[in-house]
Amino acid sequence: MGKNKLIFLTQKQRYLQFFCVVSITCLAACGNNDYSDLTQYIEEVKAVPKGNIKPLSKIQPIESFVFNPEGLRDPFKPLAQPVKHDEVPETPTGDGLKPDTKRHKDELESYPLTSLKMVGSVIMKSLLWGLVKADDGSIHRVQPGNYMGKNYGKITHISTDKIELLEIVPDKPGSWREQQNSLALTDDLENKK
Questions:
Q1: Cβ atoms of 99 and 152 closer than 8 Å
Q2: What span, in angstroms and rounded, lies between the C-alpha atoms of 179 and 156?
Q3: Tens-digit pLDDT profile for residues 89-133
C-alpha cells in the first residue's frame, strides 16, 4: 500500500510541474513590451482641445412654506362614503317595474351608454354578436340578454349595424319606466390610423 501512495504523490508532482511549465510559457508570451498603440491613443486624446464649461445658472431661493392644517381633513381618517346613485330604493312602484339589483352586473354596465360605440359584429356558431368599444379602448363582445350602460339596459336585438336595448330609467321618485335605446355602428377612424 505504501508503494501505491508513493506513485500517487509522484503523479501529483508531475501534474504540478506540467502546470507550472504551461503557466510560465503563457506568461512569457504575454511579456511583449510594445505599448506604442496605447501611447499614440493617449497622445491623440491629450491633443483634443478642451471645451468651455457653461457656468451654473443662478440658484433661485425657495420660499418657505408654513403648513397650517386647520380646517383640513385628517388624512388618517377614512373618507365619508359617497351616496351611490346606482342603488335602487326598495319602495314599490305603481306598475311593479323596477330593475333587478340582485343580479350580477355585466362589465359594460360600468360605462355610460354615451361612452360606448358599436364598432362591428361577428357571427360565431351561427349567432350574431355585437362588438362594442368602451371609452378606455377595450372591445367587448355582446349578445342579446347582456346588459350595458348605467340605466340597466338589456340588449334585445343585434343586427349588423345596430344594437337595440331596453333601459329601465327613473321616472319620478320611487317609480321606473322602460325606454328604448340603441347603439348604431360607427365608422371609428381612430382604429384605422
A1: yes
A2: 12
A3: 545 445 578 888 888 888 888 888 888 999 999 988 888 999 999
Checking if the pLDDT of 140 tops 70, the result is yes
CATH code assigned at 120: 2.30.30.830
Residue whose entry in the numeric block shows the C-alpha cell 511583449: 32
Are the beta carbons of 182 and 163 closer than 8 angstroms? yes
Tally of CB atoms within 10 A around 118: 22
136 part of a folded domain: yes
Which domain does 151 fall in, by range?
108-185
Which residue pairs, CB below 8 angstroms and at least 24 apart, start in 99-106?
A: 99/152, 99/168, 99/176, 100/152, 105/147, 106/146, 106/147, 106/148
Round to whole Å and give the CA distance between 147 and 163.
11
pTM for this predicted structure? 0.48
Specify whether the CB–CB gap between 107 and 93 falls below 8 A. no
Q: Is residue 173 part of a domain?
A: yes
Query: Would residue 42 count as lying in a domain?
Result: no
Domain count, the chain: 1
